[in-house]
From TrEMBL:
InterPro entries: HTH_LacI, Lambda_DNA-bd_dom_sf. Residues 10-64 form the HTH lacI-type domain. This is HTH lacI-type domain-containing protein. The keyword DNA-binding applies.
C-alpha cells in the first residue's frame, strides 16, 4: 500500500469497506456510475469524500493504456517559439483548456529534420499512446 507523507493512501478497497459495497461497485461508480443503485452511489460518494480517496493516474494509465495528456509538437525553427507571440497565446490557451480537464500539456520541439525524424521514430515505437485528438475549432459568436 502506498504511503504519502507518512500516511497510507486510501484505496478502492478502503472506499468499499467504508461504503459497505464491493470493490466492483466502487469501480463502477468511478467509471461513470452505470449499473449502480442510487443508494450504493450515494454511499460510495460519501466514502470517497470521507476517506480522501483520489484515483492514481499512473495506475489508471497502466490499466487503460492511455496517457491522458496532450502533446503539442512544434515543427518550426526553435527561435519562433520565443519570437512569435502567436505561439505563446496558443500554448497558454491549450494549457488553460487542458487544466480544466486536469490534463497536462507536453511541449515537443522538433525544428530540424533530424529532430522531426526522432519524434516520428519515437511515435512509431511507443506502445502506450492516446489516439490523435482533433478538437473542433472554437465557436465564434458573431452576433
Amino acid at each position: 500500500m502506498e504511503q504519502t507523507g507518512g500516511r497510507r493512501r486510501p484505496t478502492i478497497k478502503d472506499v468499499a469497506a467504508v461504503a459497505g459495497v464491493s470493490r466492483g461497485t466502487v469501480s463502477r461508480v468511478l467509471n461513470g456510475g452505470h449499473w449502480v443503485s442510487p443508494e450504493a452511489l450515494t454511499a460510495v460518494q460519501a466514502a470517497i469524500r470521507s476517506t480522501g480517496y483520489a484515483a492514481n493516474r499512473h495506475a489508471r494509465s497502466l490499466v487503460t493504456g492511455r496517457a491522458n495528456s496532450v502533446a503539442f509538437l512544434l515543427t518550426e525553427p526553435h527561435q519562433l517559439l520565443f519570437e512569435d507571440p502567436n505561439f505563446s497565446v496558443l500554448l497558454r490557451g491549450a494549457a488553460d483548456a487542458l487544466a480544466k480537464r486536469d490534463m497536462p500539456l507536453l511541449l515537443m520541439v522538433a525544428g530540424t529534420a533530424e529532430e522531426r525524424r526522432r519524434v516520428t521514430d519515437q511515435r512509431r515505437t511507443t506502445r502506450r499512446r492516446d489516439p490523435p485528438h482533433h478538437p473542433r475549432p472554437p465557436r465564434l459568436d458573431l452576433t
